[in-house]
Amino acid sequence: MSPIPTIPLGGSASHIHIGRVAFGCMGMSWAEPSQQTPDKQAFETIKAAVDAGSNLLNTGAFYGPPSDPYANLKLLRRFYDAYPEYKEKTILSVKGGTPIELYKAKGMAGFKPDASVANLEADLLGIREQLGTDQGGKEIDVYEMARRDPGKSMTETMYNMLSLSSETYTDSNGNKVTGKGLFKHISLSELGLASIKEAVSVAPIAFVELEVSPWELEAYTSGIVDFCSSQKIPILAYSPTGKGLLGQIKTTDDLPEGDIRRGMDRLNSDNLSQNLKLANEFTTLAKEHKPEISSTQLGLAWLIASSDIMVPLPGTRNADRAKENAEAASIELDAETKNKLDEKVKEFKVAGGRYNETARQHSALWG
């Protein structure tokens, strides 16, 4: 039994329940090798998260530097090799869909989503190889394209993904077929409402992964949250603390050298002081909460309270913080606190856009 509240995944994965706070693994490896999280620390953190109820682990085929794109998958393989009992305890979600060789050669400039069957199959085979899936390693429970391929309709993309999944489905010719079984369930990432609706009309969707935080509310204002709620499809809210604005970052010096967040608009020296004003509102109310909680926990609890399908997806390298994050799922906000936060967030003027200009050019947001 989970120590925290859970939610069923959507579509054909509705028999799977995940904790109302998931765990993002990206930050452990998306850096140069000297700055990546040591195995002992990473393993302790992952175990702490899962043991506290965050049983969905989110990773990616490119969650490493261009010199070693598979760094995160390699880390997870070492984790599962060391603790094989956690293969059954966890739901592994893997993001992919971009040709790895392009990413190796050009970095983010080579981040070009390709939803062709050939690329998706090559991507999945590469992921399975890194995880050791065919040698008894962890299965790919959920697979998603990190971004939409602008050259293909969502209908074509979904049929291509279905053909490689374990799903039995009716193809575009009306025939009932079963996919190749390279992964189990389909999820979506970084899509707009129209794309999500089109995808849902074709394939069963386990969840939708989007950036959602007090500083990023487009999922609400665009109608995505309401639609996903009506379809009983959870939203995994990545960067739910505003990439560290809640509780961790006070100045740009708090970001280590080489941390990718140093190049993000909302955390640069021009915008940070403005964006911290909203973080301070959470800090004040967190101290007033009985018992006192952290501002991060309050932010996660606020997101959960904002919708019946919202699942925050924080990441951390610290075992105690991973446990603390998971425990936020059990915090019930009183109406007064929730309403105060709703008002503060609604009125706040966020400084800076998502990521930075380079990322916005090379990566389709809300595709």
TrEMBL record:
Keyword Oxidoreductase attributed: yes
Name this protein carries in UniProt: Related to Aldo-keto reductase yakc [NADP+]
Record's keyword annotation contains Membrane: no
Cellular compartments per GO CC: cytoplasm
One GO molecular-function entry: oxidoreductase activity
Residue ranges occupied by any NADP-dependent oxidoreductase domain in the UniProt entry: 21-345
InterPro entries, alphabetized: Aldo-Keto_reductase, NAD(P)_OxRdtase_dom_sf, NADP_OxRdtase_dom
Any matching Pfam family: Aldo_ket_red
UniProt keyword list: Oxidoreductase
Signal peptide boundaries: none
